[in-house]
Design goal:
Layout (H helix, E strand, L loop, with lengths): L30 E7 L8 E6 L2 E7 L5 E5 L13 E5 L3 E5 L6 E2 L5 E3 L18 E2 L1 E4 L2 E6 L26 E7 L3 H9 L4 H4 L13 E9 L2 E7 L16 E7 L3 E8 L2 E13 L2 E10 L3 H31 L13 H18 L11 E6 L1
Antiparallel strand pairs: 1-11, 2-3, 3-4, 4-9, 5-6, 6-7, 7-8, 10-11, 12-18, 13-14, 13-19, 14-15, 15-16, 16-17, 17-18
Helix pairs in contact: 1-4
Length: 373
């Protein structure tokens, strides 16, 4: 598939997703969201997550199957994640509610209601908890959120596949919750002009090293990319990699940004996953893979840098929230804010394509953007 082709020959007619046209409101649906690393979902585990304002149980059977379901028992609303994974004759592995022992299969179908007696003709299998399609890919767990929970469709595309997942398991992982809608988190992440003011470290850059930049961009599947280029001369951290690094920075709906760096035959992938928990809370997870020797020696220092960046961005989000409480009109300028505009265009087109039952058409056109940072 080329970057300008549609995602699929035909979009599913059953999809009823509505355009999320208002910035800072609504979510991209009929999409895959990152929820956890595979290594963090242990056999027989039950863990509560919040995703797009809904409680979601992520678990793994002892046989290794990962599943996702709404974390509310339909009987008396107790969290299913507070229960346990059990195995009864003829039922297989089920999730047992901690309140009255109702048991549910990983697909959400009720397998048993212990309080029933033999002559009570009640059919437990008629009771269902909402289940979510879930996939494991490249050591990560993704959950598909359908636009219509009453008439959910099967995913018509797979979760994203990222380049540069090398060197075994992820070498470095850090996560932080931002008190922001995912839209604000996304545009803050792709904003090229805030770095010299928010991230002032001696090993990175400062406002005194600002200079003009020109970067070529092109459309990609469900997003766009800053095409491969040599890192800017005022980005000192790249010098640790030695050689002549070349980097490509990509964004994809609903909230993935990654930087793929090549230094000869060695690679570094810096992936950021944005997971919307609610209207005003987004988890930012930064994951690094690499087969470059520098990760073995400098990982403690890199971790300190990643944590510092997240805390600085989080602090700025908190300051921004002081202004956003008054619902001000926001000014978007070219070229520094063009990526933020592209994100909004992608969101609108995705919502429209799903609502109209047609294939997604990427609205992004190749362009060269110029700014100072």
């Amino acid at each position: 598939m080329t970057s300008t082709e549609t995602l699929a020959d035909t979009a599913p007619a059953a999809s009823r997703g509505a355009p999320a046209a208002v910035f800072g409101k609504g979510f991209v649906q009929d999409s895959w969201y990152f929820v956890a690393l595979s290594r963090d979902v242990a056999p027989a585990s039950l863990k509560r997550h919040e995703l797009l304002g809904e409680p979601v149980l992520i678990g793994r059977t002892r046989a290794g199957q990962v599943y996702a379901m709404r974390d509310i028992c339909p009987h008396r609303a107790a969290p299913l994640s507070a229960g346990r994974l059990v195995e009864k004759p003829g039922e297989g592995e089920t999730i047992e509610c901690c309140y009255h022992g109702w048991r549910f299969r990983p697909d959400g179908v009720c397998a048993a209601i212990p309080s029933l007696v033999e002559d009570q003709a009640y059919e437990p299998e008629r009771i269902r908890v909402r289940s979510y399609p879930v996939r494991e890919s490249q050591g990560m767990v993704f959950v598909w959120v359908a636009s219509d929970p009453r008439n959910p469709i099967e995913p018509d595309h797979g979760p994203p596949v990222f380049p540069g997942v090398v060197g075994g398991e992820a070498r470095l992982v850090e996560a932080m919750d931002f008190e922001a809608h995912i839209d604000h988190a996304v545009v803050g992440l792709m904003d090229p002009a805030h770095g010299p003011y928010v991230h002032q470290q001696w090993w990175w850059r400062s406002e005194h090293s600002m200079h003009e930049k020109a970067k070529a961009f092109e459309p990609r599947e469900l997003g766009f990319a800053m095409v491969r280029h040599a890192p800017s001369s005022n980005s000192r951290a790249y010098k640790l990699l030695g050689g002549a690094p070349a980097t490509e920075i990509s964004f994809r709906l609903p909230g993935y940004r990654w930087e793929h760096i090549q230094v000869g035959k060695k690679q570094v992938l810096a992936l950021t996953c944005l997971t919307p928990r609610s209207d005003d809370r987004t988890t930012i997870t930064q994951i690094f893979w690499s087969d470059h020797w520098v990760f073995g020696l400098a990982r403690p220092f890199l971790r300190m840098g990643v944590v510092a960046f997240l805390k600085q961005d989080g602090g700025m989000v908190n300051l921004q929230n002081e202004g956003l409480r008054y619902d001000p009109a926001l000014i978007w300028i070219d070229d520094a804010d063009r990526q933020a505009k592209w994100y909004q265009q992608l969101k609108r087109e995705w919502g429209r394509s799903r609502a109209e039952g047609r294939a997604f058409q990427n609205p992004i056109k190749p362009a060269t953007l110029r700014w100072k940072s």
